[in-house]
């Protein structure tokens, strides 16, 4: 059963409130006396987030499923960079690739850009007009396949279909 816009909005607002409250709790070392300033601060931050960041659908289950993938690829990315940095020379053939995104503009594209930077041998150099500019260390790697896999997973996390943009949109 699909969620209505009202349900999505309230669950998103509630989720943001919980996350912001947890951040406050961690910053204050869990001191109960800090909540007299924490409650107004959390409410102010929540209001600002609602105004500045559009309410989007978010699938927490997909995010949990994404976590092992993300952690594994972050580790592999670190190992790959470390291997290339040691004296034993591993070939580096860097290229810059423009990857047209099929995710809608907003949080999903930003999440995608931040995730891609942690894949082995890739670094996002820019995000503009639904195009991700990716710096790749070795052009012979399967980076395009990995980008597509990440984009599909991010689309599931944000519960959004992948669309093809016309140039200039």
General description of the model:
The structure is a single chain. The chain has 169 residues and is mainly α. The protein has 2 domains: 5-52, no CATH class; 60-157, no CATH class. The protein is 54% helix and 11% strand. The chain has helices spanning 5-27, 35-52, 60-85, 107-116, 143-157, and strands at 95-100, 122-128, 131-136. A 3-stranded antiparallel sheet has the order 1-3-2, covered by helices on one side. Strand 2 (122-128) and strand 3 (131-136) form a beta hairpin. Helix 1 crosses helix 2, helix 3 runs antiparallel to helix 5 and helix 4 runs antiparallel to helix 5 (143-157). The two termini are 32 Å apart.
Secondary structure tally: strands: 3
**Structurally, how many domains make up the residues?**
2
Tally of individual helices: 5
The general outline is globular
Largest sheet, order of strands side by side?
1-3-2
Distance between the termini: 32 Å
Gyration radius over CA: 19 Å
Strand-pairing-aware structural class: mainly alpha
* Mean of pLDDT: 84
Helix content: 40-55%
Secondary-structure element series: HHHEHEEH
Largest sheet: 3 strands, antiparallel
Low-confidence parts: 1-8
Strand content: 5-15%
């Amino acid at each position: 059963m699909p969620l209505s816009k009202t349900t999505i909005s309230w669950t998103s607002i509630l989720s943001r409130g919980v996350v912001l409250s947890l951040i406050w709790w961690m910053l204050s070392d869990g001191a109960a006396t800090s909540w007299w300033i924490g409650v107004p601060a959390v409410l102010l931050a929540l209001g600002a987030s609602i105004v500045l960041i559009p309410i989007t659908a978010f699938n927490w289950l997909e995010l949990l499923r994404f976590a092992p993938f993300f952690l594994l690829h972050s580790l592999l990315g670190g190992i790959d960079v470390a291997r290339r940095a040691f004296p034993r020379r591993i070939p580096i053939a860097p290229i810059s690739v423009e990857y047209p995104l099929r995710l809608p503009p907003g949080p999903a594209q930003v999440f995608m850009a931040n995730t891609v930077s942690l894949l082995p041998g890739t670094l996002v150099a820019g995000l503009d007009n639904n195009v991700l500019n990716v710096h790749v260390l070795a052009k012979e790697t399967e980076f395009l396949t990995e980008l597509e896999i990440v984009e599909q997973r991010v689309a599931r996390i944000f519960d959004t279909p992948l669309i093809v943009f016309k140039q200039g949109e």
